[in-house]
Structures are given as C-alpha cells and as structure tokens.
Amino acid sequence: MSLEHLKKSDALKEKIAILPDTPGVYMYFDAAGTVIYVGKAKNLKRRVSSYFNRRHDNVRTALLVRNIVDMKYIVVPTEQDALNLENSMIKEYQPRYNVLLKDDKSYPWIAVTNEMYPRVFLTRNRVKDGSRYYGPYTNTGVARTVLELIAKLYPVRTCRLPITPEYIAKGKGRLCLQYHIKKCRGCCTGEIDRDTYAAYIDRIRLILRGETGELLEYLRSEMENLAAELRFEEAQELKEKYRLLENYRSRSVIVSQTINDVDVFGIDDDGSADVYINYMHVRRGAVVGSVTLRYRRSLDESRPQLLEYAMDEVRRSLGAVYDEVIVAEPPAMDMPGITFTIPQRGDKAKLLEVSVRNARQNRIDDLKHMERHDPEARTEKLLERMKADFQLAELPVHIECFDNSNIQGTNPVASCVVFRNGRPAKRDYRHFNIKTVEGPDDFASMREVITRRYSRLMQEGEELPQLIIVDGGKGQLSSAVEALDEIGLKGKIAIVGIAKRLEEIYFPGDSVPLYIDKNSETLRVVQHLRDEAHRFGITHHRNRRSKNAIGSELDNIKGIGPKTVEALLGHFRSVKRLREASIDDIAAITGPAKAKIIAEALKSPDNPADNQ
C-alpha cells in the first residue's frame, strides 16, 4: 500500500528523499490541503521515511499513510524545540490523527499587581504588566478560600483606582466603606505608608508560594513581643491570624520534611483511548499545585510519549520550571538539565501513588459525569472498551454468564445471567436443573446447560448474545465450546472463561490467559456478571434443596397427593413455615380436611424437624 502511494506522488517521494538528518517538525496534508498530522523528530529523514517503507499493523496509522498527499517540514536546533513547536502546531491545526489534549482550559490564578499599593485578586488572564501570578488553581473554590484567608489576615485594597503619589497629593481619593469596616487602611488618601503596605504584600506572597512556615514563625515572634510589652489586644489580633494560617496550612497535603522542591507526573492508563496525567508541584514538603490533563490517543501513543506532551503543556500553561521530576517511567526523549526519579519505595513512591490516584479519580469523575448527563455515550464507551479487551468483532450489547452450583454434590443446578448494555437484565435470567449428569461433574453440566440454552434460543428465533462468559477457567470453557460446536454455533458467538482469579480470562484454544487491568471498567462488569451468576445459582440451589426436604416429608403423609404437595411447596417454601402456620392458613391452600391431616402429621414426634 505504501509503495503504491509513493508511485502516485513523485513530488512527495522526492521531498522524503531529500529530508535532512536534523531535528524538526513535519506536517502531513490530505487531498483537500488539510493538515491531518503533525509530528516531531530527532532525525526528520529517518522518522518520516518510517511511515512509508514498512507495513503498519495499527489501523489508524495505515489510514493516515493512505491519506497523505503532501508534506512540509520545519528544521529546529534541538529535539526540545521540536516538541515545543509540535505542541503549538497541534493546538493551531487540531489534526485528526494527533493525540489531543481534551480538557484544554484556562485555570484561574491569583494575581498580585505591580502597583504602588498592589491589589490581590483572582483572574484567568495573565497580562505582562509586571504583575506576579500564583497558581494555577484547578479548583476555583480553593482559590477563593485562599483569598478569604488573605483578606482576614491583611487589609489589602480591592478598588481599581490608579493610585500614585500624584493621585494622593491632589486629594482625589475618598475613604470608602472598606476603610470604615477596617478591610482597607486608606491607600487612596495615603493613610497607610508604602513600607507597611509592602510588608503585608511580602507576607501574602509567602502564603501564595506555600511558605507558611516562615510566616507562622514571624507571627509567633511578633505575638510574643507584643505580649512582653503588655500590648495584649494587639497580641490577641496576631493570635487570631496565627490560628487562621495554621488551619489553612493543616489542609495542605504534607508529604515529607525530607522532600523539598519536586514535580510529579502520575499516569492513569487503562488501555483505552483516554489517558489521564496528573501533575503535582511540591514545595518544602507540601503539595502547592495540582492539575490533571486528559489526552485522547490517536495512533496508539505510548505513555513516555504522552508524558512528553504533558510536561510541555504544564511548562507552557503553568510556567513550571523542572529540576527533579518523579515519574513511573521517563519520557521518550532526552531532556537535558532535568533529573528523572523513578522511586520504588519511601516518601517519593508514596507521592507518585498520590498523583496516580488523583489521575484515576479524574477518570472516575468524568465517567460519573458522563453517566449522569449522557448515559448513551457512557454505555457506548464501556462497550467499546469491552470490545477491545475481549477482541470482539462487534459491541457486546448482550452478554450471558454461566455458573454451576452443586454444593455437597446434591441437587446440581446452573445459572445464566444476562447483561444488556453493561447492566443486569434480571427478567432474562434463567436457572437450570441438571437432568442428564449423574454426580458432581461440572464439565458435563456446563455442556448440558450451554446445549439447552442455545438450542432453545435458536428454535424460538431469539437473538443470540455477542459474548458468553463461563465461570470456571479452561476446563469449563472447553466443555462450553464443545457444546456450541455440536449445535453449529462454534465461531459464531465469542466465548471466554474466567479462572478463579478474576484477572485471568481464557480464550478457546489459547493456554495463555489475558490479564485485564484491575482498574478497567471491563473488569468491573466481569466481576458484576460473575457475582450475579453465583448469587442467582446459589439462591436457586438453596430453594431446590429446601423444596426437596419439604417434598420428602410431605410425601410420607397418607392422603396427601403430589398436587397438594406442589401447592404447599409454592406457598410455604419450608417445613418450618408450614409447621408454624395455622390450620386456617393451610386450609386456604388444601381445604379443611387435608389441613387437619397435615397439621397432625407435622406435630407427630416420628416426623423429623426440618432445619432448612
């Protein structure tokens, strides 16, 4: 396919032939002149040529190559420059075959303006006017809480007046309500001098940088000095501020006194198209910033590749400067000047675990949001995931799971539970009493149940499932496949077996099991199916044993026939309930004469008690 493509475009072939062996960014165009892919390369010639000189197993990559009509490239000095340019161009063109950041949004910052009397406020727009920005805050509520703390600690102004020495000298300012309620010290009229106000701003900066320890020490020292000078009211005011700041600090995620300034990237990848990457910045042992990015895979990008994109995105949008970065695995490209730590144990390993947990929680939150606001999309996403995990040809809209129950070798039964669109369809559940198998033979029982179930569905013209799950591993699976073969359904319905450990999924004819990710939605559905099949089977087994116990006891009562026994079984369920019932209750089922006979027989000392 790729050679034919090259023959169709000599111009494209020539461009590839003369590509330089340098870092750069390349763009692929389709017949309409639309950018369909942007990529970076350490070596442009080698990377671009790899698309056209070999066959691609990935379907989307093969489709990309088929649609390439033209290409352009830009040479840059380093691979890091290539990454930066690639990121910018992906954002600009949004190519259909590129991995894309799905939640590219503007996070709020807390700004401290560059003015004579600086203001402190929340904003999503960063302007290059000398102001300092702190954040970003992924949770606006947290940012507002920080601002409330600052307002309680220090009376900084909130007005937008252009206060300058000339403005104050001309007497244009007027003291407002904020001054009278002691939330401002009168900046507009010069009531507070610049040095005192600057001291407020310096302490506010400490809070915003997460360096609350130094500020607490300062407040404690000032409080003790005021108390020594018998200025108790002022000391009490500082004490209240100290408590506020200490309470705020206690809500920070304290990691360790041994960890100083590090950055952490935790990745949650369940094998689906969506990959969540959490970034945390740690300063002086406390997490002072966190954000989670969601990427949508396009060409089966690896985790190290996605980590590159995330690091560059955080650097661009959050202003991160990396020194030491904690990761589970390093990025695909070299990044000089950055130390990558892959912890195995200790505080750094725990910190990485926290980051991964945050990424995973974002996935869960998105799924819950989708389930609430767009349940159809949520269901389709789940079925697509299961289709990929089980290597199915179509979506598993209809799944059936089988389980055998023969506790203590008696009354063998089997259960069949049905899920539609990933949810139980309880009206379609079925149970089976094993008829052709003598003794506890799970394999033969499974063969019988599969044969009965699908022979009947075919005879009645009912729809067949897209997936059958057999609880019991390789042996049970082989028996089920034999049954499907006998009734002409082998290969027409996908079937898998679950070993005792839920992570092991067996396919027909394959001795090597598939291990599903423990955090996968697919495994959650499989667990639910298995639990339901087990519960439904055990319940039926217990009911059958109970009925048999009732039947054996009632069969011995002279004058009570099979139809009466059946009616009593259906109503009372157990001998205990029947024995406790009044004659009138029994008579309502059997009539007065038989009720009297039954009541007297059950009270006879020769009749054994039923403990079921």
Question: Would you write up a description of this structure?
Answer:
Helices cover 46% and strands 17% of the residues. The chain has 612 residues and is of the alpha+beta class. It folds into four domains: 2-98, 3-Layer(aba) Sandwich (GIY-YIG endonuclease), CATH 3.40.1440.10; 109-254, no CATH class; 263-369, Alpha-Beta Plaits (2-Layer Sandwich); 385-542, Nucleotidyltransferase, domain 5 (2-Layer Sandwich), CATH 3.30.420.340. The strands form four sheets. Strands 14, 15, 16, 17, 18, 19, 20 and 21 form an eight-stranded mixed β-sheet that branches. A hairpin with a 5-residue loop joins β19 (494-498) and β20. The longest helix is centred in the last third of the chain and has 34 residues, at 521-554. It is flat. 29% of the residues are buried.
